[in-house]
Design brief:
1 helix, mainly beta, single chain
Protein backbone atom coordinates (compact mmCIF):
# COMPACT_ATOMS: atom_id res chain seq x y z
CA UNK A 1 0.00 0.00 0.00
CA UNK A 2 1.16 3.51 -0.76
CA UNK A 3 -0.89 6.51 0.30
CA UNK A 4 -0.46 10.29 0.43
CA UNK A 5 -2.33 13.12 2.16
CA UNK A 6 -2.62 16.58 0.63
CA UNK A 7 -4.26 19.89 1.52
CA UNK A 8 -7.27 20.49 -0.73
CA UNK A 9 -6.55 22.84 -3.70
CA UNK A 10 -2.85 22.68 -2.94
CA UNK A 11 0.13 20.66 -4.07
CA UNK A 12 1.62 20.78 -0.59
CA UNK A 13 2.42 17.22 0.46
CA UNK A 14 1.50 16.65 4.13
CA UNK A 15 2.50 13.01 4.42
CA UNK A 16 3.53 10.04 2.36
CA UNK A 17 3.52 6.51 3.71
CA UNK A 18 4.30 3.09 2.31
CA UNK A 19 3.39 -0.23 3.85
CA UNK A 20 4.31 -3.66 2.54
CA UNK A 21 2.90 -6.93 3.87
CA UNK A 22 4.05 -10.41 2.93
CA UNK A 23 2.62 -13.57 4.44
CA UNK A 24 2.66 -17.30 4.01
CA UNK A 25 0.64 -20.06 5.68
CA UNK A 26 0.84 -23.81 6.09
CA UNK A 27 -1.74 -26.04 7.80
CA UNK A 28 -2.68 -29.68 8.28
CA UNK A 29 -6.13 -31.20 8.80
CA UNK A 30 -5.72 -34.51 10.66
CA UNK A 31 -8.45 -36.99 11.50
CA UNK A 32 -6.97 -38.56 14.61
CA UNK A 33 -9.92 -40.95 14.74
CA UNK A 34 -13.50 -40.99 13.51
CA UNK A 35 -14.80 -38.60 16.18
CA UNK A 36 -11.75 -36.27 16.53
CA UNK A 37 -10.47 -33.78 13.95
CA UNK A 38 -7.45 -31.50 14.40
CA UNK A 39 -6.57 -28.42 12.36
CA UNK A 40 -2.96 -27.35 13.00
CA UNK A 41 -1.33 -24.49 11.15
CA UNK A 42 0.85 -21.40 11.30
CA UNK A 43 1.49 -18.24 9.36
CA UNK A 44 4.51 -15.99 9.04
CA UNK A 45 3.86 -12.33 8.23
CA UNK A 46 6.38 -9.57 7.61
CA UNK A 47 5.41 -5.89 7.65
CA UNK A 48 7.57 -3.04 6.35
CA UNK A 49 6.40 0.51 7.01
CA UNK A 50 7.98 3.90 6.29
CA UNK A 51 6.80 7.50 6.49
CA UNK A 52 7.45 10.85 8.23
CA UNK A 53 11.15 10.12 8.49
CA UNK A 54 10.67 6.74 10.15
CA UNK A 55 11.09 3.17 9.03
CA UNK A 56 9.87 0.14 10.96
CA UNK A 57 9.75 -3.58 10.35
CA UNK A 58 7.83 -6.41 12.05
CA UNK A 59 7.99 -10.19 11.74
CA UNK A 60 5.02 -12.02 13.25
CA UNK A 61 4.45 -15.74 13.85
CA UNK A 62 0.74 -16.57 13.72
CA UNK A 63 -0.21 -20.06 14.98
CA UNK A 64 -3.66 -21.60 14.71
CA UNK A 65 -5.11 -24.75 16.29
CA UNK A 66 -8.64 -26.16 16.22
CA UNK A 67 -9.83 -29.39 17.79
CA UNK A 68 -13.32 -30.76 17.04
CA UNK A 69 -14.68 -33.72 19.01
CA UNK A 70 -18.02 -35.31 18.18
CA UNK A 71 -18.75 -38.17 20.62
CA UNK A 72 -22.22 -38.69 19.11
CA UNK A 73 -24.49 -37.42 16.35
CA UNK A 74 -26.19 -35.09 18.82
CA UNK A 75 -23.17 -33.61 20.62
CA UNK A 76 -20.13 -31.70 19.33
CA UNK A 77 -17.36 -29.77 21.09
CA UNK A 78 -14.86 -27.40 19.52
CA UNK A 79 -11.78 -25.61 20.93
CA UNK A 80 -9.93 -23.01 18.90
CA UNK A 81 -6.85 -20.79 19.19
CA UNK A 82 -5.76 -18.35 16.49
CA UNK A 83 -3.59 -15.29 16.01
CA UNK A 84 -3.92 -12.73 13.23
CA UNK A 85 -2.85 -9.21 12.31
CA UNK A 86 -5.14 -6.18 11.97
CA UNK A 87 -4.21 -2.91 10.26
CA UNK A 88 -5.26 0.71 10.48
CA UNK A 89 -7.63 2.15 7.88
CA UNK A 90 -6.57 4.99 5.61
CA UNK A 91 -8.47 7.65 7.61
CA UNK A 92 -6.74 6.45 10.81
CA UNK A 93 -3.25 7.20 9.43
CA UNK A 94 -3.94 10.28 7.29
CA UNK A 95 -2.77 13.48 9.00
CA UNK A 96 -5.11 15.68 6.93
CA UNK A 97 -7.40 17.35 9.51
CA UNK A 98 -11.16 17.31 9.08
CA UNK A 99 -14.00 18.90 11.06
CA UNK A 100 -16.58 16.44 12.38
CA UNK A 101 -18.68 19.21 13.93
CA UNK A 102 -18.25 22.66 15.47
CA UNK A 103 -16.20 21.42 18.45
CA UNK A 104 -14.60 18.19 17.22
CA UNK A 105 -11.82 17.77 14.69
CA UNK A 106 -10.16 14.57 13.51
CA UNK A 107 -6.64 13.80 12.39
CA UNK A 108 -5.00 10.42 11.85
CA UNK A 109 -1.79 9.07 13.35
CA UNK A 110 0.69 7.75 10.73
CA UNK A 111 2.81 6.18 13.50
CA UNK A 112 0.18 3.55 14.33
CA UNK A 113 1.51 0.01 14.59
CA UNK A 114 -0.33 -3.10 13.34
CA UNK A 115 -2.37 -4.97 15.95
CA UNK A 116 -1.85 -8.61 16.89
CA UNK A 117 -5.14 -10.27 17.86
CA UNK A 118 -5.16 -13.59 19.75
CA UNK A 119 -8.40 -15.50 20.32
CA UNK A 120 -9.20 -18.56 22.43
CA UNK A 121 -12.72 -20.01 22.17
CA UNK A 122 -14.70 -23.03 23.38
CA UNK A 123 -18.09 -24.10 22.08
CA UNK A 124 -20.46 -27.00 22.60
CA UNK A 125 -23.43 -27.86 20.38
CA UNK A 126 -26.17 -30.18 21.62
CA UNK A 127 -28.98 -31.85 19.63
CA UNK A 128 -28.35 -29.37 16.77
CA UNK A 129 -30.41 -26.85 18.73
CA UNK A 130 -28.50 -25.60 21.79
CA UNK A 131 -25.07 -23.94 21.63
CA UNK A 132 -22.98 -22.81 24.62
CA UNK A 133 -19.70 -20.99 24.18
CA UNK A 134 -17.06 -18.66 25.58
CA UNK A 135 -14.36 -16.57 23.91
CA UNK A 136 -11.35 -14.63 25.20
CA UNK A 137 -9.44 -12.11 23.07
CA UNK A 138 -6.21 -10.21 23.70
CA UNK A 139 -5.05 -7.51 21.31
CA UNK A 140 -1.51 -6.13 21.46
CA UNK A 141 -1.28 -2.60 20.03
CA UNK A 142 -5.05 -2.37 19.55
CA UNK A 143 -6.03 0.69 17.51
CA UNK A 144 -8.39 2.86 19.56
CA UNK A 145 -9.77 6.42 19.57
CA UNK A 146 -7.89 9.13 21.48
CA UNK A 147 -9.36 12.55 22.35
CA UNK A 148 -7.42 15.69 23.30
CA UNK A 149 -8.86 19.01 24.49
CA UNK A 150 -7.53 22.33 23.26
CA UNK A 151 -6.74 24.74 26.09
CA UNK A 152 -7.31 27.86 24.00
CA UNK A 153 -10.60 27.48 22.14
CA UNK A 154 -12.33 24.59 23.99
CA UNK A 155 -12.35 22.34 20.94
CA UNK A 156 -11.46 18.66 20.87
CA UNK A 157 -9.17 16.67 18.60
CA UNK A 158 -9.96 13.04 17.82
CA UNK A 159 -7.00 10.92 16.78
CA UNK A 160 -5.92 7.29 17.18
CA UNK A 161 -3.38 5.44 19.29
CA UNK A 162 -2.19 1.93 20.10
CA UNK A 163 -3.26 0.40 23.40
CA UNK A 164 -3.74 -2.98 25.03
CA UNK A 165 -7.21 -4.55 24.80
CA UNK A 166 -8.76 -7.60 26.44
CA UNK A 167 -12.22 -9.01 25.96
CA UNK A 168 -14.39 -11.89 27.12
CA UNK A 169 -17.68 -13.16 25.71
CA UNK A 170 -20.02 -15.92 26.88
CA UNK A 171 -23.20 -16.90 25.05
CA UNK A 172 -26.06 -19.35 24.92
CA UNK A 173 -28.07 -19.84 21.73
CA UNK A 174 -31.16 -21.95 21.14
CA UNK A 175 -33.09 -22.75 17.96
CA UNK A 176 -36.48 -24.47 18.16
CA UNK A 177 -38.19 -25.73 15.03
CA UNK A 178 -41.77 -25.43 16.29
CA UNK A 179 -43.19 -26.69 13.01
CA UNK A 180 -41.78 -27.30 9.54
CA UNK A 181 -42.23 -23.61 8.65
CA UNK A 182 -42.06 -21.94 12.10
CA UNK A 183 -38.72 -21.40 13.91
CA UNK A 184 -37.89 -19.63 17.17
CA UNK A 185 -34.30 -18.41 17.75
CA UNK A 186 -32.80 -17.00 20.95
CA UNK A 187 -29.31 -15.85 21.91
CA UNK A 188 -28.19 -14.43 25.26
CA UNK A 189 -24.71 -12.92 25.43
CA UNK A 190 -22.51 -11.29 28.08
CA UNK A 191 -19.50 -9.24 27.02
CA UNK A 192 -16.64 -7.55 28.88
CA UNK A 193 -13.85 -5.41 27.43
CA UNK A 194 -10.92 -3.50 28.89
CA UNK A 195 -8.61 -1.05 27.12
CA UNK A 196 -5.50 0.36 28.83
CA UNK A 197 -2.33 2.24 27.93
CA UNK A 198 -0.74 5.69 27.98
CA UNK A 199 -1.81 6.16 31.59
CA UNK A 200 -5.50 5.43 31.09
CA UNK A 201 -7.71 2.41 31.68
CA UNK A 202 -11.35 1.86 30.75
CA UNK A 203 -13.63 -1.16 30.83
CA UNK A 204 -17.21 -1.87 29.79
CA UNK A 205 -19.61 -4.78 30.14
CA UNK A 206 -23.10 -5.55 28.91
CA UNK A 207 -25.72 -8.27 28.77
CA UNK A 208 -27.73 -8.59 25.55
CA UNK A 209 -30.60 -10.73 24.34
CA UNK A 210 -31.99 -11.27 20.87
CA UNK A 211 -35.08 -13.33 20.08
CA UNK A 212 -36.87 -13.78 16.79
CA UNK A 213 -39.68 -15.87 15.35
CA UNK A 214 -39.55 -16.75 11.65
CA UNK A 215 -42.39 -18.17 9.58
CA UNK A 216 -41.93 -19.36 6.00
CA UNK A 217 -45.12 -18.87 4.00
CA UNK A 218 -44.45 -21.51 1.35
CA UNK A 219 -47.37 -20.85 -1.05
CA UNK A 220 -46.18 -17.29 -1.74
CA UNK A 221 -42.44 -17.82 -0.96
CA UNK A 222 -42.48 -15.15 1.73
CA UNK A 223 -40.53 -15.09 5.00
CA UNK A 224 -42.15 -13.23 7.89
CA UNK A 225 -40.02 -12.41 10.94
CA UNK A 226 -40.62 -10.69 14.28
CA UNK A 227 -37.51 -9.79 16.30
CA UNK A 228 -36.85 -8.38 19.76
CA UNK A 229 -33.43 -7.10 20.82
CA UNK A 230 -32.33 -5.75 24.18
Amino acid sequence: NRYMSHVRNSNNLLSENTEGRHNGYVFLDWSVRADLLLHVGAGLESIHKSGLGQKREWLEFLPQLTATWQPSDQVQFMADYSAKMEYASLYQVSVTPSALDKWLFQSGNPRLSPSRLQTVSLQGTFFEALALGAEYTHTHNAITDWYEESVDDKTFLKTFTNASAKGFRAFAAYEWAVTKCLTWNNIVQWQWQKISGHGFSNHTSNLSWRSNVEYWIKPVSLLAKVEYTR
